[in-house]
UniProtKB/TrEMBL annotation:
Lineage of source species: Eukaryota, Metazoa, Chordata, Craniata, Vertebrata
Matches recorded under InterPro entries: Translin, Translin_C, Translin_fam, Translin_N, Translin_sf
Functional summary from the UniProt entry: DNA-binding protein that specifically recognizes consensus sequences at the breakpoint junctions in chromosomal translocations, mostly involving immunoglobulin (Ig)/T-cell receptor gene segments. Seems to recognize single-stranded DNA ends generated by staggered breaks occurring at recombination hot spots. Exhibits both single-stranded and double-stranded endoribonuclease activity. May act as an activator of RNA-induced silencing complex (RISC) by facilitating endonucleolytic cleavage of the siRNA passenger strand.
Positions bound to Mg(2+): 64
Highest taxon listed in the record's lineage: Eukaryota
Species of provenance: Bambusicola thoracicus (Chinese bamboo-partridge)
PANTHER family in the record: TRANSLIN AND TRANSLIN ASSOCIATED PROTEIN X
GO BP of this protein: RNA metabolic process
GO cellular-component term (any): cytoplasm
UniProt name for this protein: Translin
Amino acid sequence: FHEHWRFVLQRLVFLAAFVVYLETETLVTREAVAEILGIEADRERGFHLDIEDYLSGVLTLASELARLAVNSVTAGDYSRPLRISTFINELDSGFRLLNLKNDSLRKRYDGLKYDVKKIEEVVYDLSIRGLNKEATGGAGGEK
């Protein structure tokens, strides 16, 4: 019956990961998400959070953070895209360590590459316009 819950669990993982990111700017663990949702992390203990569902939810988080980076600049918050860029690059590095099969998770991971590129473009635009100096405290030799 896992297929009945797959999409809902992935969406709930995304929501939990997004809230935790907004509060702490860290990645929530699979165990923490399972605890938030009131389900098990281990298959042997009953209704559980599958690792693929957790990873899919995290990939959805990456897409939403790419949108948040753009919206942050629009709102005048020039430091957030830099922090998001660091977070997403670390996330991408972690996913590159996985040996993903040619399935839906692999296709979702391929989308992460576009999210990384989108965020890099935002950070690049900030640096060209000199707006990231405000975000880093004015460092960079300006007098």
